[in-house]
């Protein structure tokens, strides 16, 4: 056995070096902020569900001490348009949201918001796997300094919740329906017949209460989690958009991470997206049943009538953005 003699000098040297060693260890910890506009609901809010899945995989990979995640739901870091710009600048590291918000920075991303482009979420995943995601990802990185590090689903197809019954386009005519502040989504609802009204997510509830809005378009779990059903009681299954959910990641944060840690983090982020997709598929119908219990009337409608009205949108978008054509063609040729 080897015996080491500890002298007063070595003890003092060790004490002197200890803060530097500890400081180095602390410097290795990467702190990240993750933003979501939705409530802090662990079941029905996609941002919280993704965060829980991400932290689970970080812990499973032994990364929870090296990467410190802090979650900010309910627009705590600002409205989505401000947050996505902060992700672009690297002020905020991550954001979980749909594609409509980033289309304000890079219009090509709006391809995914075209009305009735996707027919189901499984079809969407299949199309993305076949290459329909890469052109959008590349454009967003080049044009806004933002990476997409995981694709999930919004928790159900987007349909119309209104204060009056809507069975078809004639009933929707003139109703002030909140849309995402994005020209593609706004145009889709306009073609469907509504008086499309762009508004930040955090302002929807009070606008419904005040009568500024007659309704909104969103998925069932979000309507449930945000309690929009308290002010509008008719949910018409237009299913005009199967909206992808993106995990946006600042390229500035990406570049400041040590490569080995970064690769492990990206793997955890991708696994979290897969888990979030599975969760989204299971909670849509459950949320619909809860909405019924809370007095919401679920209405089937003539989707084909809406589809025909919206059809010119895709042609016009591709004409304005020719680089969207191969993406649209690939999605439309993909079967579920």
What is the element layout, followed by pairings?
Blueprint: H1 8-27, E1 30-35, H2 46-60, E2 67-72, H3 80-89, E3 94-98, H4 99-102, H5 121-132, H6 134-144, E4 146-153, E5 158-162, H7 169-172, E6 176-179, H8 183-192, E7 195-198, H9 204-210, E8 215-218, H10 220-225, E9 234-241, E10 244-250, H11 251-256, H12 259-293, E11 297-299, H13 303-320, H14 325-333
Parallel strand pairs: 1-2, 1-3, 6-7, 6-8, 9-11
Antiparallel strand pairs: 3-10, 4-10, 5-8, 5-9
Structure explained in plain terms:
- With 336 residues, the chain is of the alpha/beta class.
- The protein folds into two domains: 30-155 and 243-288, 3-Layer(aba) Sandwich (D-Maltodextrin-Binding Protein, domain 2); 158-242 and 290-333, 3-Layer(aba) Sandwich (D-Maltodextrin-Binding Protein, domain 2).
- 50% of the residues lie in helices and 18% in strands.
- The protein has 14 helices and eleven strands.
- The chain has helices spanning 8-27, 46-60, 80-89, 99-102, 121-132, 134-144, 169-172, 183-192, 204-210, 220-225, 251-256, 259-293, 303-320, 325-333, and strands at 30-35, 67-72, 94-98, 146-153, 158-162, 176-179, 195-198, 215-218, 234-241, 244-250, 297-299.
- The strands form two sheets. It has a six-stranded mixed β-sheet with strand order 7-6-8-5-9-11. A five-stranded mixed β-sheet has the order 2-1-3-10-4, with helices on both faces.
- The protein is globular and about 60 Å long.
- The chain starts with 7 loop residues before the first helix and ends with a helix.
- Mean pLDDT is 92; it is low at 1-27.
């Amino acid at each position: 056995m080897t015996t080491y003699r500890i002298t007063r000098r070595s003890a003092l040297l060790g004490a002197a070096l200890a803060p530097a060693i500890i400081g180095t260890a602390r410097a290795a910890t990467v702190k990240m902020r993750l933003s979501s506009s939705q409530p802090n609901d662990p079941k029905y809010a996609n941002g919280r569900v993704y965060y829980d899945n991400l932290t689970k995989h970080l812990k499973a990979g032994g990364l929870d001490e090296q990467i410190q995640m802090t979650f900010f739901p309910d627009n705590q870091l600002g409205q989505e348009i401000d947050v996505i710009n902060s992700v672009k600048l690297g002020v905020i590291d991550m954001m979980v949201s749909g594609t409509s918000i980033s289309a304000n920075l890079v219009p090509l991303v709006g391809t995914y918001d075209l009305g009735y482009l996707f027919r189901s979420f499984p079809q969407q995943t299949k199309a993305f796997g076949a290459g329909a995601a890469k052109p959008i990802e590349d454009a967003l990185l080049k044009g806004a300094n933002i990476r997409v590090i995981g694709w999930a689903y919004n928790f159900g197809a987007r349909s119309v919740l209104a204060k009056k019954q809507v069975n078809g386009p004639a009933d929707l005519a003139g109703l002030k329906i909140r849309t995402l502040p994005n020209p593609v989504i706004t145009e889709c609802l306009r073609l469907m017949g509504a008086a499309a009204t762009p508004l930040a997510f955090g302002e929807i509830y009070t606008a419904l209460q005040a009568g500024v809005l007659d309704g909104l378009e969103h998925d069932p779990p979000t309507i449930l989690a945000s309690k929009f059903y308290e002010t509008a009681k008719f949910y018409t299954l237009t299913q005009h958009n199967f909206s992808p959910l993106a995990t946006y990641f600042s390229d500035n944060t990406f570049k400041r991470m040590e490569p080995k840690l970064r690769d492990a983090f990206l793997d955890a982020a991708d696994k979290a997206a897969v888990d979030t997709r599975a969760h989204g598929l299971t909670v849509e119908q459950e949320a619909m049943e809860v909405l019924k219990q809370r007095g919401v009337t679920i209405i089937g409608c003539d989707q084909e009538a809406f589809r025909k009205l919206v059809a010119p949108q895709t042609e016009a978008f591709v004409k304005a953005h020719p680089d969207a054509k191969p993406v649209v063609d690939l999605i439309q040729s993909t079967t579920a």
